[in-house]
Amino acid sequence: MSSSPILSTSPLAGQLDRLAGAVRVALREAVSAGEPTQAGQYQLGQAFSALRCAAIALTAGPSEHTLLNAQLALAETAGSLVAGGHLFALEAAGDIAAPEPELIDAVYASEPAIEEAEELAMLREIFARFSREAVAPVAERVHRGNLDVPEEIISGLAEMGAFGLSVPEEYGGSASGSATDLLAMLVATEELSRASLGIGGSLITRPEIIARALLAGGTALQKERWLPLLASGETMGAVAVTEPDFGSDVAEIACSAVKVDGGWRISGTKTWCTFAGRANLLAVLVRTEPDRSLRHRGLSLFLVEKPAFAGHSFAVESNGGAMEGRAIDTLGYRGMHSFEVRFDSWFTPDDSLVGEESGRGRGFYLQMAGFESGRLQTVARANGLMRAAKDAGLAYARDRIVFGKRLSDLPLTRYKLARMQSTVAATRLWAGFSAAEVAGGTGALEASMAKAHACRSAEWVAREAMQIHGGMGYAEEYPISRYFVDARVLSIFEGADETLTLKVIVPGVARLA
Ligand SMILES: Cc1cc2nc3c(=O)[nH]c(=O)nc-3n(C[C@H](O)[C@H](O)[C@H](O)COP(=O)(O)OP(=O)(O)OC[C@H]3O[C@@H](n4cnc5c(N)ncnc54)[C@H](O)[C@@H]3O)c2cc1C
């Protein structure tokens, strides 16, 4: 990734570039000043991501939408930096113009166009139809009743090849090894997430993460065995990394596996393992090397088989060991259920260790290989959810009469909706750009920035769309309340916002030339 990505296509691009450059310099200084500047580092990391999003979007898809987004990003970022004591932003941003009412009107009601190759546009239409016809009609019922993901959705997605989007063709998937693979995954995820985060787009995340880990470090036999099963949906996976005492601090996890004849015995507790009940394969990150000073180098990744269970709890005994799961009640993101899973001397054979003997101590890296594209996929989940929330806000505003006028005829409402439209346009363009970077092997920082920024944006869009609904936004009968609670989780999982910003984005930006 280059440090100065903005082409000088307009004075605004130059302003964004100057402010981003000044943020980078300030960030480098803050990093060398160390932990006392943590709050400042976080703010600078956030600011750089927002400016980067606006700049990429302005360059990749020049339009009224991206122009408005860039204007607002410049003004808001400079404003919040100054409020945070970073006075350099005043000068670096240059003159800031308020958006013209004509620009707001032009953006308010128009769906931002995304140019796509014919093949991707067709794929989008196929997933959009499934999302509308199969996911949307049941999304509210599953959310309010805290029900399981309907099996018809899983089998429908399996038939469409949704679980094989990241699995190479030679293993029964549809990935050809080109950058289009990631774009296809983004398109499918975004469309499914428009209907539901919990029973739509997120179903593709787990096979994506496990397949990437297997491709990065599995033996030939492991790839031959598991990838076709993941691609067909016959095997449904879940990812068990987080523990009650260690979430962001993955390197310290304590759940352990002890070598026994023919395999390993796993003991300890994992938490927040989404889909652990229905899944028949758990990717479990555990400590295999007792020397705790090895930290992340003492971790290994196992693919642990278990029976699939419906509902909110399960318990199973096998080979003298036991596994027990209990779903944690959550605000939103319902359907797959996120479980606390307790392993008590659970036996798993030698060939379940990813990479077998050479995989010992490499689990952390293999897991991270999966998380990089997982983050990109979360950008698509955020984009799908944002589009749904924005559409709901727009539809409600057009219907609702206040003070004798349509809500959508009021300038403040139009401004809010235009901001939402321009935000969605920018984060979608950034997703496509990041996919190309990730495919080229240089996108770790880009995907992390896009994840952090898109997830915060989704939360803001859902909040504003809910606000437009007034009291009805708080009623369960409108889906906007579901979008709002679902959006809240995006900044927590797949790298909590603060951790991602401080541990990945800040050092990454500080290293840029
Ligand atoms: C609905 C849901 C589904 C999930 N699904 C899965 C799953 O399938 N598999 C799985 O393994 N995990 C899953 N998770 C867990 C998720 O990845 C963790 O919640 C996340 O990593 C944060 O860990 P934690 O909850 O332990 O928070 P903590 O690590 O305790 O962090 C608490 C807060 O402190 C902040 N923080 C942490 N470190 C720092 C620092 N150095 N400086 C400043 N602030 C810091 C964090 O950003 C956060 O805001 C899920 C979580 C949820 C809510």
Any key phrases for this structure?
513 residues, alpha+beta, Butyryl-CoA Dehydrogenase, subunit A, domain 2, five-stranded antiparallel sheet, 13% strand, disordered N terminus, binds flavin-adenine dinucleotide
User: What's the helical proportion of residues?
Assistant: 40-55%
CATH homologous superfamily name of the largest domain? Answer: Butyryl-CoA Dehydrogenase, subunit A, domain 2
The description of the largest β-sheet is: 5 strands, antiparallel
What structural class do helix, strand and pairing data support?
alpha+beta
Mean pLDDT: 95
Ligand list = flavin-adenine dinucleotide
Strand arrangement, major sheet: 2-3-8-7-6
Describe the protein in words.
The protein has 513 residues and is α+β, with helices and mostly antiparallel strands. It folds into four domains: 11-99; 121-232, Butyryl-Coa Dehydrogenase, subunit A, domain 1, CATH 1.10.540; 237-361, Butyryl-CoA Dehydrogenase, subunit A, domain 2 (Beta Barrel), CATH 2.40.110; 375-496, Up-down Bundle (Butyryl-CoA Dehydrogenase, subunit A, domain 3), CATH 1.20.140.10. α1 (11-33) crosses α15 (497-511), α8 packs antiparallel against α12 (411-439) and α9 packs antiparallel against α11. The protein has 15 helices and ten strands. It has helices at 11-33, 38-60, 64-83, 88-93, 101-108, 118-145, 151-159, 179-195, 205-217, 220-232, 363-399, 411-439, 444-468, 480-489, 497-511; strands at residues 237-240, 256-260, 263-274, 281-287, 299-305, 313-318, 321-328, 338-349, 401-402, 405-406. Strands 2-3-8-7-6 form a five-stranded antiparallel sheet, with no helix packed on it. It has a three-stranded mixed sheet with strand order 1-4-5. A two-stranded antiparallel sheet has the order 9-10. The protein binds flavin-adenine dinucleotide (FAD). Flavin-adenine dinucleotide is lined by residues 239-242, 247-248, 272-274, 330, 333, 338, 489, 492-493, 496-499, 502.
